[in-house]
Amino acid sequence: MSHGTGGSPWTYRGMAAYLARAGFVVALPEHPGNSRSDNSLAGTAANLENRPRHVRLVLDAVFEDAQLGQRLSPGRVGVIGHSLGGYTALAVAGGRPSSFPNESPDGQARAVPVVRDPRVRALVLLAPASPWFMAEGALANVDLPILMRTAERDEHTPAMHAEIILRGVPHPQRIDHRVVPNAGHFSFQSPFPPAMTRPEFPPSQDPAGFDRLAFQPVLHAELLTFLRDSLG
């Protein structure tokens, strides 16, 4: 699971626990340089390069782990990404991103060197951020089943982000896409404790009338069905 920019993997704790109880091994990396603990690389080409590598390194560690490795099925990996985590999932699944001029020290746009991980067989994209894949053919190698959920009232990744993905992959019919009515960008995260739920903390907030707590079981069930069907 790949968290959003400046975020934390623990904001998806409910989703992770649900999948673990269903029999999945769930890895929750915190992206160095782009998390709530250290956000020094936010908005840089280095961060775009690092994030997919983090996922590959985590997969290496999990498959090589003495306890977990022997319990895993090779080649049956799904990557779940929210917001910039959606970018990360697409990059590790074969996407070829390009940075923007403002993301590089020299002010030049350039291709971001990322490596596809063939172990990844399915993607879950939640309010994905995708403008780094606008170039022709940038998503041509992302040919695998995708479950994509976007938010009707997303203030950070509006509809054009999903459109880039739908237009860019070679087989858009392999994407199960649904716009969640009245949801906001952060509605895919676990509900925050009452002490943290306040207007000045945007990740804890949803559009008026949206019930994040009630939505979570629906989202989790959809993810579980998709991952079981896609990974076998």
TrEMBL record:
Domain AB hydrolase-1: 3-98
Family matches, as Pfam families: Abhydrolase_1 (PF00561)
Domain of life of the source: Bacteria
PANTHER family: PLATELET-ACTIVATING FACTOR ACETYLHYDROLASE
Organism from which the protein derives: Archangium lansingense
Keywords: Hydrolase, Lipid degradation, Lipid metabolism
InterPro entries assigned to the protein according to its UniProt record, in alphabetical order: AB_hydrolase_1, AB_hydrolase_fold
KW Hydrolase (keyword) present: yes
A molecular function GO annotation: hydrolase activity
UniProt KW Lipid metabolism keyword: yes
Listed name of the protein: Alpha/beta fold hydrolase
SUPFAM superfamilies: alpha/beta-Hydrolases
